[in-house]
Write a structure and sequence with these properties.
Blueprint (H helix, E strand, L loop, with lengths): L17 H16 L5 H13 L3 H8 L21 E8 L2 E4 L4 E11 L2 E5 L9 E9 L2 E7 L4 E8 L2 E4 L12 E9 L2 E7 L4 H4 L7
Parallel strand pairs: 1-3, 2-4, 3-5, 4-6, 5-9, 6-10, 7-9, 8-10
Length: about 210
């Protein structure tokens, strides 16, 4: 009887199933809800997860998250959480939320003769959807969302405008929905789609990229 040789390093990688991809996306969403991934990072990694051909590619997407790889489990300490920001008010002035911050799942933006800017790209989004009620009274509310995120804009504008210009990137399944209810009087609410400046430096590199 011959002695078994070393494993064949040229053996094909284990192919990922649809269930594997769904589990990876669920783990990514858990990481985002814990504040480990920004909204933009989540949207981009979800896209890569659904395009992954092998389990190894999914593992690379989850490698910097605890207890989420498809082949291993690790222990970790919880990430400190920031304060939830529900009210964003500008009265004859300005209010800006940028960088790492935690919008409330049901937030409110009020611009009275002023301006409110809510940049969600680096925010920590919890749950399946984010609801923002915007009031622009002789002022403006600007909401910035990552590429590939579904936006549901509704409401009413009187002598003003509520605008959303979808980006060129298709909606990425598995990302939270941003629902905006905008009420504008002699003012406006605008939703802008922007790419992330830090994505290339923060996302994991898949083999072959």
């Amino acid at each position: 009887m011959g002695v078994p040789g070393p494993p064949d390093e040229r053996a094909p990688a284990l192919r990922a199933s649809d269930a594997d991809r769904d589990r990876a996306v669920a783990s990514l969403r858990d990481g985002a809800s814990e504040g480990r991934l920004t909204f933009d990072e989540l949207a981009h990694r979800v896209e890569l997860a659904y395009a992954a051909a092998t389990v190894a590619e999914l593992d690379e997407l989850l490698a910097d998250l605890p207890a989420t790889t498809m082949t291993a489990t690790t222990a970790t300490k919880p990430v400190p959480r920031g304060k939830l920001r529900r009210w964003n008010v500008a009265i004859m002035g300005g209010c800006e939320r940028r960088g790492r911050w935690r919008p409330s799942p049901h937030g409110v933006a009020v611009a009275l003769m002023g301006g409110v800017t809510l940049d969600l790209r680096d925010a920590s989004i919890e749950g399946d959807e984010l609801v923002i009620t915007a009031f622009a009274l002789m002022g403006g509310v600007e909401i910035v969302v990552p590429e590939g995120v579904e936006v549901d804009l509704g409401g009413l504008a009187i002598m003003g405008a509520n605008e959303h210009r979808p980006g060129k990137v298709p909606v990425r399944p598995g990302t939270p929905i941003v629902r905006i209810r905008a009420f504008s009087l002699m003012g406006g609410t605008e939703v802008k789609v922007r790419g992330s400046r830090s994505r290339d430096a923060s996302r994991p590199q898949l083999e072959g990229e």
